[in-house]
Every structure is written in C-alpha cells, then in structure tokens.
Specification:
Number of helices: 6
Order of helices and strands: HHHHHH
Helix content: 55-70%
Distance between the termini: 47 Å
Largest sheet: none
Structural class: mainly alpha
Shape: globular
Number of strands: 0
Length: about 110
C-alpha cells in the first residue's frame, strides 16, 4: 500500500471548490459521478462570486479576532448566517469562545456583501 504524507492542510470555501471543479471539467472534458453531484450542489447553494468571497475573507481576517482561524472564516463564508443565533450555531461544535462584540463585528462584515 502507498504511504501518503499530508504536506499541507488548508480549508477551502465552497466558492473555491466550485472554481476548482470547473477547471477540472475544462481540463478533462467530463466529470465523474461524484464530481457531478458536488457540482450540482455547489451550483444550487453557492451565491458568492470568488471576488466577493475573497473580499469578505480579507475583511474578516482584518478584524483581528485572535481565536478565529481560517477554517472558521471559511465555514462562515460557506453558510453566510444572517443573525447572531445562526452565527453562534456555527461555533457550537467548536472548542472556541468568541465575545459577543466580535460576533457582531463578523455579522456586520457579512451584511456588507
């Protein structure tokens, strides 16, 4: 069996995944069954453009919330919660506590979209 080694682990948003699948489809002319299903899902649920997603991600990083990591930002971008309860639900399963004022600042960035 091949011994695989993970070199880098980096979370990507659904917008980035949608673009990567489009590149693969362009390269290979055709996607396999699973890739087609993923593409259908992404077409149905991804509302942001890559430019919008990058701007929002940059603005969230500029908030300098110490405990907010890249994977959290990607999760927020994928879901785009509309209220504090939705945002809190995203972090419910995480071992992270974010102040109420920081949550409000995150929502303000999302609403600027």
């Amino acid at each position: 069996m091949v011994d695989l080694k993970v070199i880098e682990e980096k979370p990507i948003s659904m917008v980035e995944l949608k673009n990567k699948i489009a590149l693969i489809k362009k390269r290979d002319q055709e996607l396999n069954f699973r890739s087609n299903k993923v593409q259908e899902y992404l077409n149905a649920f991804v509302t942001l453009t890559e430019k919008e997603a990058n701007e929002l991600k940059k603005k969230m990083e500029e908030l300098n919330i110490s405990r907010l990591k890249d994977r959290h930002i990607v999760k927020v971008l994928d879901i785009m919660p509309e209220d504090l309860d939705g945002l809190k639900a995203l972090f419910a399963g995480e071992n992270i506590t974010i102040k109420q004022e920081d949550l409000t600042r995150i929502l303000e960035v999302i609403r600027q979209k």
